[in-house]
């Protein structure tokens, strides 16, 4: 069994960052014996990276960190904006985004499909993260 390790890559501040991030997650998860669900990890990573590209200053780099854990993985997307993302916690009023809207469902997907998620401030902005358990 592999020891937990982390994969880290700087991403361009363009739409090209999304497929690059998906490929890194897929490659990283292929390295461990009991990976998390790769399709879910790729989907949620794509949402975080797309949000970082869309909602942060284009002059600031985006970084993807995939940490391989003994019981799954944690994915973080670092960007230069210290402002927290939209609400990553379940809303008490049960309000969900309009399914016909073009935007607003990414964080809902992350909340619904990850085992945990959140954000934290960093020295250069923030990191938004989620964890997924290993497949049984």
Describe the protein.
This protein has 136 residues and is α+β, with helices and mostly antiparallel strands. The protein has 3 helices and 5 strands. The chain has helices at 17-29, 38-55, 106-113, and strands spanning 5-11, 62-69, 72-79, 116-122, 125-133. It has a 5-stranded antiparallel sheet with strand order 1-2-3-5-4. A hairpin with a 2-residue loop joins strand 2 and strand 3. Helix 1 (17-29) packs antiparallel against helix 2 and helix 2 runs antiparallel to helix 3 (106-113). The longest helix has 18 residues, at 38-55. The protein is globular and about 40 Å long. The model has no long low-confidence stretch (mean pLDDT 86).
Summed up:
The chain is of the alpha+beta class and 136 residues long. The protein has helices at 17-29, 38-55, 106-113; strands at 5-11, 62-69, 72-79, 116-122, 125-133. Helices cover 29% and strands 29% of the residues.
């Amino acid at each position: 069994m592999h020891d937990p390790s982390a994969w880290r890559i700087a991403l361009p501040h363009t739409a090209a960052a999304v497929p690059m991030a998906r490929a890194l997650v897929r490659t990283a998860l292929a390295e461990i014996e009991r990976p998390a669900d790769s399709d879910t990890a790729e989907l949620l990573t794509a949402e975080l990276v797309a949000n970082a590209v869309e909602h942060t200053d284009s002059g600031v780099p985006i970084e993807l960190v995939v940490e391989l854990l003994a019981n799954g993985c944690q994915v973080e997307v670092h960007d230069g904006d210290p402002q927290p993302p939209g609400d990553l916690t379940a809303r008490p009023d049960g309000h969900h985004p309009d399914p016909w809207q073009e935007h607003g469902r990414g964080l809902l997907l992350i909340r619904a499909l990850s085992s945990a998620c959140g954000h934290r401030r960093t020295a250069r902005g923030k990191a938004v993260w989620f964890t997924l358990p290993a497949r049984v």
